[in-house]
Amino acid sequence: MKRKERINKTLFWIILIIVMILVLYPFAAMVSGSFKTDMEMNRHSLRLIPREVTLEHFHTLFDTIPFWAQFMHSAVLSITAVVLVLVVDGVVAYGFTRFDFKGKGFLMSLILATMLIPAQVLMVPQFQMYKEMKLFGTYVPLVIPTLLSATGIYLLVQIMGQVPRDLYESAMIDGCGEMRMLFKIALPLSKVGFGIQGVLTFMAVWNDYMTPLIYLNKESMYTLPLGLTRLQNFYKISYGAALAGALLSCIPVIIILSIVGEKYFVKGMMVGAVKG
C-alpha cells in the first residue's frame, strides 16, 4: 500500500508540474519578450532569459499609442461595470431568495436559459438597437450588457439562499426595511459571491476586445485591448511592444487576483459543498 501511495503521489506531482509549466510558460514568454530585442525575439522566440535586456519596447509603446489614457478608459469602464452589476444582480438575487411569488421558478429558468444564447447571435440586433438609440460611439453599449448576468444572479441566489430566514424575521421585528436588510444582512453574509462576481466582471470588461471594436469609432475613446492592436501595421510588426503592453495590462488583474483571489474564490468553491 505504501508503494502504491508513493507511486500515486509521484504521478500527481508529475502531472501538477506539467500543468504548471503549460500554464505559466506563456506568461513567462510574454515577460521575457517584453525585454528582448527584436532580433533576439525573431531568432530565439522560445528562449526565456534574454541575453540583452532592453526597454526599447516600452518606449515604443508609449510613443505609438496614448497608453495611459487608454489604460484609464479601461479602468473606469471596468470599475463602473463592477459597481453596476453588483447592485443590479444583488437586488435581483435578494428578490429571488427573500420573497416567494408566482412564477418564481419559471423566471429563474428563463434567466438561466439566456446562458444558452451565443453572444454572436445578439451582435447584430444589439448593434441596430444601440444605433437607433443614438448610443453608437459611446461607452454605454460596453457597460449595459454586463448589468444582468445570469451567471452572477445564479451564483448570488445560491449564496444568499443560505442566509437564515430567522435573521430577516428578527430584523423585521426591530423595524428594518427591505433595503436595510439587503445592505445590513444579505450583502455582508454573501460577500464571497459578490467578490467572485466582481472579479469576473472586472476581468471580462478589462479584457473585452470585440465590443469596443464594434461600438467605438474614435481613437481617442479606445480602450486598452483595442489600442494595443494599433501597435501592428502592414509595414512594421514589433512583437516586443505588443508584449510590453500586454504585460502592463496584466498588472491590474494580477493585483486584484492576488488580493481577493484566495479570499473569495477558494471560499466560493467551498460554498454549498456541505449544503444538505
Structural summary, described in words:
Helix 4 crosses helix 8 (150-160) and helix 4 packs antiparallel against helix 11 (191-206). This protein has a domain at 67-233 and 255-270: MetI-like (MetI-like fold, Orthogonal Bundle), CATH 1.10.3720. With 276 residues, it is mostly helical. The longest helix has 33 residues, at 2-34. It has 14 helices and no strands.
Looking at this protein, list some descriptive labels:
mainly alpha; 14 helices; globular; MetI-like fold
Helix/strand layout:
Layout: H1 2-34, H2 38-43, H3 56-64, H4 67-98, H5 104-113, H6 119-132, H7 140-143, H8 150-160, H9 165-173, H10 178-189, H11 191-206, H12 210-215, H13 224-228, H14 239-270
Helix pairs in contact: 1-14, 3-14, 4-8, 4-11, 8-11, 11-14
Given as residue ranges, the uncertain stretches (5+ residues, pLDDT < 50) are 272-276
Give the overall average pLDDT: 84
Here the CATH topology of the domain at 67-233 and 255-270 equals MetI-like fold
What structural class is derived from the secondary structure elements? mainly alpha
Q: How would a textbook summarize the main sheet?
A: none
CATH structural class of the domain at 67-233 and 255-270: Mainly Alpha
Radius of gyration equals: 24 Å
List the secondary-structure elements in sequence, H or E: HHHHHHHHHHHHHH
CATH superfamily of the domain at 67-233 and 255-270: MetI-like
Instruction: Specify the CATH architecture of the domain at 67-233 and 255-270.
Output: Orthogonal Bundle
Quick take:
With 276 residues, the protein is mostly helical. It has helices at 2-34, 38-43, 56-64, 67-98, 104-113, 119-132, 140-143, 150-160, 165-173, 178-189, 191-206, 210-215, 224-228, 239-270.
